[in-house]
Design brief:
Largest sheet: 7 strands, mixed
Number of helices: 21
Helix content: 40-55%
Oligomer: single chain
Structural class: alpha/beta
Number of strands: 20
CATH class of the largest domain: Alpha Beta
Shape: globular
Distance between the termini: 35 Å
Bound molecules: pyridoxal-5'-phosphate
Number of domains: 3
Strand content: 15-25%
Amino acid sequence: MSTKNKSALFQKLPSTDELLRQPNIQELIERDGHAPVAESIRAVVARLREEIANGHIAGVELSEKSVDLAVGGLFDAIERELRRSLSSSLRLVINATGVILHTNLGRAPLAETALDHVREVANGYSNLEFDLETGERGKRDVHVDRLFRKLLSDSLVSSETLATKSLASITNAPPSRSTIVVNNNAAAVLLALNSLAEGGEVIVSRGELVEIGGSFRVPDVMQKSNALLREVGTTNRTRIGDYERAITDRTRLLLRVHRSNFEITGFTEQPSLEELVALARRRNIPLMEDLGSGALFDLRSVGISGEPGVIDSLRAGVDIVTYSGDKLLGGPQAGLISGRADLVARMRSNSLFRALRVDKLTYAALEATLLAYVKRDHDAVPVLRMVRLSKDQIAHRAEALVSKVESSVGAGRPSRLKLELCDGESVLGGGAAPSAVLPTRLIALSHGELSADRLNAHLRTSTPPIVARVEDARVLLDLRTVFPDQDDVLAGAIVSLC
Ligand SMILES: *Cc1c(COP(=O)(O)O)cnc(C)c1O
């Protein structure tokens, strides 16, 4: 289109002043105020100008007619823009991706009991740092430390004494363990390294110098903690002797890092945790493990092996473990440091701890989540519920959803949308190994006229928005990560695609 014709199209756009004088816009101003309405008008008109300049309006080729259509729809567009600008940008979405711990979708959804407890505690004042018995100042970490002690120490003590009834295990009682909470696991690693190894060396295998989630890089965190990284072994093979030879009088810590979203397979070797523990004990150097996800329940019960659990590591004799609160634990964003009480005490007294501490909302959500574990009420924690869903349970819901869609579309009406059920895999996500998958049943959508990407984009405009994945030109919906009470909304959104 020529520049001259384009400028004729630009002239069709009303000015902000003209729009502001329109009676229906006046009503919006009365309700929401002049400034936000004027701002919405400017945003919508600017967008339309840009579209004209680019030669397309809402994906349609530019013409006099398409501009007239857009001008006719200006009021609706302005109202939509206004509503969006005056509502939260952070919103609930339906996660139909089947990725249980989706970092972009906020990782673990909170348990109802956690939400209730947050509301109760934050709706007024609380005893966050107040000892109700003595009436004196208390510590915020006592609220969750007591629960971690229960969850970690009880099971450890009983299993240790049961497993080895030797005199040594009775006289060498397991060391007292405690837990502190910081902002996230990255902060936990930073605090632990700084507290235990500042100015000294930390030995890490080259196979574990990983980057997780784009911004957590082991060497970078090490540098910020003022500890010196001492790399040993090679990318694929590191032996216990490599660690041993690297130990000097500057060594402060042995560190193992869970590789998380990255796997090394084939010609590989890594010392067992037991070997590392034995070396650490012999040389009297603490051993720390960055677990990443750090499950507090046994993943083997759902057929996933190789993901380290917090209890497994402590039981094996690791001195300090760090893990996230919002990964497999299923709680709020937090970084947890559990292990030998004397080492944790050094972290607590580090001034960095004050800078990395968490607020009462996090403590409240974490406390309620841990209580669900203490009560063995695992289904109260959404992440655990999702992990434990069987393929049959998911298939059952998927079939019900498809028949619901089919019956509301009506048998007689032809639809270009095709719904199929197929087998697939859900993934743990959140830094669990890529091979940590669970069998599932998927709903696959395809459309005679719309591409899978267009279908997917349509689903994202639903209320609440639906996030799915696209594979082989189909939109795949995995109900494992959809809350059962969202199935109807999902069905409705699919019907609207028909
Ligand atoms: C996820 C992960 C982290 C980062 O944890 P955040 O809670 O996101 O800060 C660090 N280390 C490992 C091994 C991880 O898997």
